[in-house]
């Protein structure tokens, strides 16, 4: 009988340790202490050059929050060159105030931009006008 009580006690203690470990109580982790994603990745899919908008920027429309996850990384997985250009300046219109523009990205190259102002930013690929996306930047982050 004593063996069963000892085994039951050990099982109960083990269960409590597992519970406290996963609930964060052992290490004092609170939700505010857990790591957060500081960047958002947008992928240019293989075949985007063929004219299918669903292969263009994925995801095409994103929301980010200032001082939380307001850095966006675009990665070209396609076999042709693409860029990421603030839409009002995609074709070098006179008087355009460009917010961001990447160089032409080869396969597996990336472009990173950190947004620092609230707003809606439309962008496109200059050589492929059907490739479009939007970044909505919201307030709410803490320094």
From TrEMBL:
InterPro entries according to UniProt: BlueCu_1, BlueCu_1_BS, Cupredoxin, ET_Amicyanin
Q: Where is the Blue (type 1) copper domain?
A: 53-138
Keyword field: Copper, Electron transport, Metal-binding, Transport
Annotated protein name in UniProt = Blue (type 1) copper domain-containing protein
GO MF entry, a single one: copper ion binding
Matching entries from SUPFAM superfamilies are given as:
Cupredoxins
Please provide an example of a Pfam family that matches this protein in its UniProt record.
Copper-bind
Q: Give the organism, scientific name.
A: Caldiarchaeum subterraneum
């Amino acid at each position: 009988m004593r063996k069963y009580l000892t085994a039951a006690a050990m099982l109960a203690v083990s269960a409590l340790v597992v519970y406290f470990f996963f609930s964060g109580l052992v290490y004092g982790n609170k939700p505010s202490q857990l790591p957060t994603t500081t960047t958002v990745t947008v992928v240019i899919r293989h075949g985007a050059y063929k004219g299918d908008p669903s292969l263009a920027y994925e995801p095409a429309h994103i929301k980010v929050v200032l001082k939380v996850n307001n850095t966006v990384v675009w990665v070209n997985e396609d076999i042709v060159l693409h860029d990421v250009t603030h839409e009002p300046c995609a074709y070098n219109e006179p008087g355009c105030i460009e917010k961001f523009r990447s160089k032409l990205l080869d396969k597996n190259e990336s472009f990173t931009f950190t947004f620092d102002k609230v707003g809606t930013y439309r962008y496109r690929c200059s050589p492929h006008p059907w490739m479009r996306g939007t970044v909505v930047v919201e307030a709410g982050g803490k320094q």
